[in-house]
Design goal:
This protein is about 30% helix and about 20% strand. The protein is of the alpha+beta class. The chain is flat.
């Protein structure tokens, strides 16, 4: 975007830009535990979310996030899946 047209979006909105990577499946790859990528003249910092470590309750409160809820941490995954299915049926 050209500066003459109002600046960059994050400047107009006065908000920081946060990069996020969401890992959906458990893995032992080292990259799952890194929050920065650097290559030559390129460097990115980002927040890492490992969905299998997340509490499913916040995901259950937003219909658009229900598919992610079944991948979240659960003592009994079948119960969590039933909760998600019931919420989808109600919407």
């Amino acid at each position: 975007m050209q500066r003459g047209l109002g600046g960059f979006p994050h400047e107009r909105l006065h908000q920081d830009i946060e990069q996020v990577i969401i890992f959906l499946k458990p893995t032992r790859l080292a990259g799952v535990f890194e929050n920065q990528f650097t290559e030559r003249n390129l460097s990115f910092r980002y927040r890492v979310i490992r969905i299998w470590e997340c509490d499913p309750q916040p995901l259950l409160t937003t219909p658009g996030l229900l598919p992610l809820a079944v991948l979240a941490q659960a003592e009994v995954p079948e119960t969590l899946l039933s909760q998600v299915a019931a919420k989808i049926d109600r919407n």
